Amino acid sequence: MNADPFRIFTIFGTRPEAIKLAPVIRVLEEDKRFLLRTAVTGQHREMLDQVLEIFALKPDYDLELMEPEQRLPALTARIISGLGEILPQEEPDLVLVHGDTTTTLAAALTAFYQQIPVGHVEAGLRTGKKFSPFPEEMNRSLTDLLADIYFAPTSMNLQNLKRENISEEKIYLTGNTVIDAVRLISEERYEFPRQIPVAATRERGHSIVLLTAHRRENLGEKMAEIFAAVRELISAYSQIEVFFPVHLNPRIQILAERILGDHPRIHLLEPLDYQTFINLVNQSRLVLTDSGGIQEEAPGLGVPVVLLREDTERPEALEAGTVLKAGSSRKKIIELTGRLLEDEEFYQKTSRRTNPYGDGRAALRIKDALLEYFQLAEDIFQPFSFHG
Ligand code: UD1
Ligand code: UDP
Predict the structure, then answer these.
(1) Residue 210, phi then psi, degrees to nearest 5
(2) 37 with 65: CB under 8 angstroms?
(3) Residues 132, 1: Cα–Cα separation, whole Å
(4) Strands lying side by side in the sheet with 6-12
(5) From the CB of 314, is ligand 2 less than 6 Å away?
(6) Residue 84 — very low, low, confident or very high, per pLDDT cuts 50/70/90?
(7) Domains plus CATH for the chain?
(8) Contacts (Cβ under 8 Å, ≥6 apart) of 116
(9) What angle do CA 100, 106, 111 make, to 5 degrees?
(10) Angle formed at CA 14 by CA 11 and CA 18, multiple of 5 degrees
(11) What is the pLDDT of residue 366?
């Protein structure tokens, strides 16, 4: 066996990539057979830094690329150009990327230009619709065209890749690393920071409805429609309080302030650090969201989700009945949320704990897959399996 460690260069830029790569970084750093180096593009700034801090991640490079209201073409160009300077100096054996952001695709493309193999964590998620979600569906499909080794969270994701003629020897069924991340930050007793009024809400006997919204295809009219639905819900149900950690995109901040900003039972919050957020999910009666990651986290915590998107690349929890799709229709959002608030039997069914996305061992499987694929160990990989 080669005595030199296998050199992995991991690149990420946004909050969800950081959360889902943190467990992988931890596992690879602990194994002497690997030498891990890290670059962040800084596609996100504050929201990325929150994750770096909570998982004590210290990147070797930070491109610091974020600009207010950044547009996709310029952002993509800046990432490729920045990484194009770094990769030739690093000469890694593998570039490791995660997910479906602009950072993901631009990093995979830069690696390809340098003829460096690419590993894709969270590969094979698909809606089959080019513009939904936008630009994520194309980001992940194109990344999968460029990749050499694939870490598919679920068997549906693995089947999607096989349908695209990717050879099975390159695909490893690992589970999603987000479940590892949830377990890493979970604590038995958690006390919320004072500015998050969970205790006061409980004292008033109210239930928490947690809201997040950020998708590009929802920006504008659709998001206004979603917020209008929330406004109607808060008037109709005097026993709920809405907690909304607002994404830092100025377009969302302005709209949230305009439609939701002046109600005593609607709490517009700063983006929350991951530990606070996961504990808030845990304390919530239900979650309204258009997020990808939250669709994976909430079912494991037994918290129902009303999904504010027309399409999802994560059909597993939809099939399990713990995620309910409303899209951006005001009527549908009110109907489904209302039913969850009023119909206890329906609520119990929908809040059944289920974990189709992982078992907390995805990062270890990714390490084993790398060892096996690059012939640093033999026959050690055991795939993730879920029996609903
Ligand atoms: C990005 C990803 C999306 C992912 C989401 C996770 C792309 C095209 N989109 O979307 O797939 O689901 O991250 O949250 O890759 N901003 C700040 N501070 C921050 C982060 C964002 O001020 O820490 C503001 C900036 O004005 C920035 C804007 O938000 O220009 C949009 O950020 P951007 O990364 O382009 O898009 P997201 O909607 O966050
Ligand atoms: N999240 C967080 N703080 C918040 C809101 C979300 O830490 O205030 C976490 C959440 O638990 C999930 C991830 O951020 O792991 C999802 O990020 P986002 O919804 O921005 O992106 P997506 O998953 O849709 O790509």
Answers:
(1) -95, 135
(2) no
(3) 45
(4) 61-62, 34-40, 6-12, 94-98, 118-121, 149-152, 171-173
(5) no
(6) very high
(7) 6-176+358-373 (3.40.50.2000), 198-351 (3.40.50.2000)
(8) 9, 87, 91, 92, 93, 94, 95
(9) 115
(10) 65
(11) 98
Between 388 and 12, name the one with better pLDDT: 12
φ and ψ at residue 337, rounded to 5 degrees: -65, -45
Q: Give the residue with greater pLDDT, 3 vs 278.
A: 278
Tokens 């990808």 locate to 292
Query: Residues 6 or more apart from 345 whose CB is under 8 A from it?
Result: none
Of the listed ligands, the closest to the CA of 214 is 1
Q: Compute the distance between CA of residue 184 and CA of residue 173 in angstroms, rounded to an integer.
A: 21
3-class SS at 121? strand
- 197/187 Cα distance (integer angstroms): 19
% of the chain residues with pLDDT over 90: 98
| 2 — pLDDT class (breaks 50, 70, 90) | low
Atom in ligand 2 nearest the alpha carbon of residue 99: 25
Q: How far is the CA of 246 from the centre of ligand 2 (A)?
A: 11
pLDDT one-digit tens code per residue, 20-52: 999 999 999 999 999 999 999 999 999 999 999
Residue 108 CA to ligand 2 center (angstroms) comes to: 22
Determine the length of the chain.
388
Instruction: Determine phi and psi for 379, rounding to 5 degrees.
Output: 45, 50
Cα separation, 355 vs 384, in Å, equals 12
294 C-alpha to ligand 2 centroid (Å): 6
Average model confidence (pLDDT) for the chain? Answer: 97
User: Rounded mean pLDDT of 80-104?
Assistant: 98
- Taking the model in full, what pTM does it have? 0.98
Active site residues: 100, 122, 136, 214, 216, 247
Half-sphere exposure of 52 (CA within 13 A, CB side): 20
- Measured at the CA of 57, the angle between CA 182 and CA 115, to 5 degrees, comes to 100
b/e string for 138-152 if b means 16 or more Cβ within 10 A?
Answer: ebbbbbbebbebbbb
DSSP secondary structure, 230-262, as one string: HHHHHHH-TTEEEEEE--S-HHHHHHHHHHHTT
Which residue type sits at 6? Answer: F
Q: Return the pLDDT at 187.
A: 85
Interval 75-93 mean pLDDT: 98
- Determine the Cα–Cα distance for residues 192 and 290; give it in Å rounded to an integer: 24
